[in-house]
Structure formats: C-alpha cells, structure tokens
Design goal:
The chain is α+β, with helices and mostly antiparallel strands and about 270 residues long. The chain contains four helices and ten strands.
Length: about 270
C-alpha cells in the first residue's frame, strides 16, 4: 500500500514529466534502470553552407510532409519510476494509439494503480489534449521560440546529425534549453537533451530530460524518454518511457495509405 510520502513523490514526478513531455510532443528498447548512453562519437566540423535559418526552414518543411503522411500508429509504452539505486517504485504498460489528425487513446493498461492515478493519467490526458489542440503551448522548435548555436556534426547511432546548442527566447516552462541533434539527411530531430527554461515549481529543484527518436517506415517517432527529477526533501527520481513495437499506417488502402497521404509520402521519400 502506497504511503502519503510516496503519493506525493509520484505526483511531483508526474507534474514535472507532463511539462517536459509537452515540450517533446510538439518537437516530435530495453527497460532497465540505466540512463541513456551519452553520445560519444567525436564532434566534427560543420559542412559549409549550413546555417541556423536553413535548419529551421528545413525542419518546418519536412515536419509538415511527415505530419501529412502519418495516418496513425500504435505503440507499446512502458512507464517506470525508479530511484537511483535501481529500486522501481511503480511501473505501467499500455498501448497508445494515434489517429490523424488529433486522436490519441491508451488501451490495454496493466501495472500498479498508483502510477496510473498519479502519473499515467495526467501524462496521457495532457498529451491527448495537446494533440487535439485543447492545450495551446507554443513550444515548437522554430525561430520564433529558439535560437541555435551550431556546434558541428556528430554520429548518433546510425544517424549523421547536425549538433546545436538550443537557447529559448523567453523564460517559459514549456520551452527548454540544452542540445539538439538533427538528422543531416531528413532534417528530423534525432535527440534532445536539456531542462525546462523556467523552474517548474518550488518542490522541483531541477529536472533534466533526454529524448531519443528512431526512424520507422520513414517517420521519426520517440524511442525512449528519460526524466531525472530532483524533488525537494525526497531526492532524485528517474522516470523512463520506452516506446516499442510500433505499427505505422496500418489497415489503409492497399499499400497502407490514403491517396492524399500517399502523395505526401512519395514527396517525403524523394527528399531522403
């Protein structure tokens, strides 16, 4: 049975992750207690002709094409809250379904009741409301919200990336500051490391997050989220979300796409 102290910890972690996931959602594996591996490949010089304005423009164009081509997907998510000793305080597994343009549902939930009440429900509700436009937070990675300090190029797994320091243009808890990796071929976000640009609450002393993306059937979708939260009086807690078993654009016309989206997908494939 969960104590009041545990409930408070879970609630604080959930509140923090809601804000951080809203950042990541607009920006667009294995399950264990280890943090995600740091990027260790050497940082190499930036190729000529790459500019901040070009990156923002390409991100906007390519994201628009991908959004138009994505009809829907299902993904198995595993949520886990642990301390730094590896003790798991709560776990939740559920299948998320997205249908364009703005429908998200969670089904087949299993796991502990406390994370469902304290963490999963607020997370999913906020994500669904954001997808449907009910929560408007201008946190997109655009020139209106951020500036980029281009650092060079780096290999992140199989992906060749431009690396930039990303700086918010205002203090806003739905913006972040940190580092950004952008795929050099697809102009898609591959990895984000950072923390909210504004302190989230008195009880949350610090919150750092990493989101890693993966390319599946031409679409860049989340692979793993980690949020390390320093809670006043309670210490550090790590929330991980693993995204596995994606099924993208299933059960559509013949090849899995409707005519309009099929044209967008062809255009997208032509740019890769």
């Amino acid at each position: 049975m969960a104590t009041s102290s545990t409930r408070l910890e879970m609630a604080l972690v959930a509140t923090t992750v809601v804000a951080i996931l809203l950042i990541a959602v607009v920006a667009r594996a294995e399950t264990n207690q280890e943090t995600q591996a740091e990027v260790t490949a050497p940082l190499e010089p930036l190729r000529t002709g790459v500019t901040e304005s070009q990156l923002f423009a390409e991100l906007d164009i390519r994201n628009g094409l991908r959004k138009s081509a994505l009809l829907g997907y299902t993904v198995l998510r595993t949520y886990q809250v642990a301390d730094l000793r590896g003790k798991v305080h709560a776990e939740e597994i559920g299948e998320m379904e997205f249908r364009a343009p703005d429908q998200k549902t969670m089904t087949a939930e299993s796991g502990s009741g406390i994370i469902r009440r304290m963490a999963l429900s607020p997370l999913i509700s906020s994500e669904i409301e954001t997808a449907a436009g009910k929560q408007h937070h201008d946190s997109a990675i655009t020139a209106a919200n951020y500036s980029l300090d281009l650092l060079g190029e780096q290999q992140v797994g199989p992906y060749r990336c431009f690396v930039a320091q990303i700086v918010p243009k205002r203090k806003d808890k739905y913006l972040f500051e940190g580092k950004l990796w952008i795929d050099a071929n697809d102009y898609a976000v591959v990895r984000i490391e950072g923390h909210p640009a504004k302190k989230l609450s008195f009880r949350i002393e610090r919150a750092d997050f990493v989101r890693q993306y993966q390319k599946i059937d031409g679409f860049w979708l989340p692979e793993k989220d980690e949020t390390l939260v320093q809670v006043r009086l309670y210490g550090k807690k790590l929330l991980t979300i693993d995204h596995q078993n994606y099924v993208v654009n299933a059960e559509r016309n013949g090849n899995g796409q409707a005519p309009a989206q099929e044209a967008n997908a062809r255009a997208l494939a032509g740019t890769n």
